[in-house]
Task: inverse folding
């Protein structure tokens, strides 16, 4: 009966065991998608299709669905056979074990790339397998844009489910709050359209709750009538950091409230082996201005080089995405602090000395530190659109996300690199905490192994997420069978008085956060 309904072999799956083996005689025929396995041409191309080699694994096979119904059939098979699986959107995560698996099926969303704009151009349906560069290129033809990623290589799915920091952050809120509806395949295999009216609880939970409730196959986003913009990098002398940090504190507290259309983030990059040590700032404005907006003029006046041009959103995100090349080993970590110029300087100095510490011992070693404001305007705009589960309120004051990207080449250097990163994180957050400046919030898309971003949302939000998960995934499929990703904690033991007690997470606990 099964054979008469389905095409020839496209999927190999043991019917009794939780792990997959291409030599197993038990097979199931599935009329869907595309399957790649170790015996298939181009297998390795699909296996390594992610940014960081730290995130690559060896799945038994790779399933590439072409529709939500394909995903639905696959989920039912995984559940019926207790089969482990992992989901890859854009593959931009650097966390080991996140976007792949060594013990089951890798579901790659890379063929879910439809982009369909509405007749009135006020919304767009975006397949979960898209990258933002492709989205901007397509919708730019209609002179509209969305609150998407700021680098063209970043995938749509993980970005939106983790909250999302866009160029429109301060005026429109977190990118997740610009999602009008989700198409999701639930643990039951049901394909559901989730809106603020149809499933109000799940709609909110997906705004920061990441992949704990199902596999999202498409997003409907609000569009904005923005065509040409002005954006680019400003360069600064390294001995001007103190002035830069002062400008950034003022901007975060006051400037962005005056003009929330502005968007700035501060970048420090160091590659000791190439004598690269630089300070820069990326500036974005959603209009091709000829006279500088007053809020950003101090940054322009202080710079020694400006490459600010009128361009499209696609061109801007290509510009910021060029620093990411597939293949090396990457690690990302982040935390948040209250806006304080003196603290910014201290945190920079700790990072810089740490980067130089590995100068002569780690081939290909480089490091980048970025300061990105989360303004009160951001939080108010998000709340106006219905809120999210990130646990942020304007009363807490503006925050600065401090994030790091580390890059190296050899797997044999992993232990040494991770030890230094752990030391940097512990030292930095301890200093911020000692000054009563450490924020509770950890931005999920910058969180590294051993961090607990969902727990950082606070007890009330975690309790809400637990209730939603129990309702839509009562058997815990996306906790028990789905590999990788940040899971909803069973309790919020690390939250104390509005701050995250980072010292309770030890470096040697790294592995348990990969697969729990």
Result:
């Amino acid at each position: 009966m099964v054979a008469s309904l389905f095409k020839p072999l496209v999927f190999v799956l043991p019917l009794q065991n939780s792990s997959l083996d291409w030599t197993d005689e038990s097979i199931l025929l599935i009329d869907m998608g595309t399957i790649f396995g170790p015996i298939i041409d181009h297998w390795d191309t699909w296996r390594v299709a992610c940014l960081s080699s730290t995130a690559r694994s060896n799945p038994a096979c790779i399933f590439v669905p072409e529709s939500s119904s394909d995903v639905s059939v696959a989920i039912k098979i995984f559940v019926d056979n207790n089969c482990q699986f992992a989901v890859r959107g854009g593959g931009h995560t650097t966390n080991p074990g996140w976007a792949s698996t060594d013990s089951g099926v890798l579901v790659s969303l890379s063929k879910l790339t439809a982009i369909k704009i509405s007749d009135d151009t006020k919304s767009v349906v975006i397949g979960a397998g898209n990258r933002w560069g492709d989205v901007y290129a397509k919708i730019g033809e209609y002179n509209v844009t969305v609150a998407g990623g700021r680098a063209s290589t970043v995938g749509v799915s993980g970005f939106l489910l983790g909250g999302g920091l866009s160029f429109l952050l301060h005026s429109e809120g977190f990118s997740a709050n610009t999602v009008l509806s989700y198409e999701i395949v639930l643990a039951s295999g049901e394909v559901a359209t989730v809106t603020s009216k149809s499933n109000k609880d799940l709609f909110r939970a997906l705004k920061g709750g990441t992949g704990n409730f199902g596999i999202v196959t498409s997003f409907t986003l609000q569009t904005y009538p923005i065509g040409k913009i002005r954006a680019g990098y400003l360069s600064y002398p390294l001995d001007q950091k103190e002035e830069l940090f002062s400008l950034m504190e003022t901007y975060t507290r006051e400037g962005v409230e005056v003009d929330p259309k502005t968007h700035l983030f501060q970048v420090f990059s160091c590659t000791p082996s190439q004598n690269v040590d630089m300070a820069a700032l990326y500036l974005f404005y959603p209009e091709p201005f000829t006279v500088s907006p007053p809020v950003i003029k101090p940054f322009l006046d202080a710079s020694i080089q400006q490459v600010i041009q009128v361009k499209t959103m696609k061109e801007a995100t290509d510009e910021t995405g060029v620093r990411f090349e597939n293949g090396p080993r990457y690690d990302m970590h982040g935390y948040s602090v209250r806006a304080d110029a003196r603290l910014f300087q201290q945190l920079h100095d700790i990072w810089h000395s740490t980067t130089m510490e590995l100068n002569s011992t780690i081939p290909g070693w480089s490091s980048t530190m970025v300061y990105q404001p989360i303004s009160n305007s951001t939080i108010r705009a998000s709340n106006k659109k219905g809120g999210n589960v990130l646990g942020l309120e304007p009363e807490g004051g503006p925050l600065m996300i401090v994030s790091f990207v580390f890059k190296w080449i050899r797997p044999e250097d992993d232990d040494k690199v991770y030890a230094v990163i752990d030391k940097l994180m512990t030292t930095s957050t301890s200093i911020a905490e000692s000054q009563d400046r450490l924020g509770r919030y950890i931005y999920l898309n910058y969180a590294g192994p051993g961090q607990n971003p969902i727990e950082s949302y606070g007890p009330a939000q975690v309790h809400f997420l637990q209730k939603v998960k129990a309702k839509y995934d009562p058997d815990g499929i996306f906790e028990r069978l789905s590999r990788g990703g940040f899971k909803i904690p069973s309790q919020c033991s690390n939250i104390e008085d509005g701050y995250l007690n980072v010292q309770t997470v030890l470096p040697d606990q790294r592995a348990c956060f990969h697969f729990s």
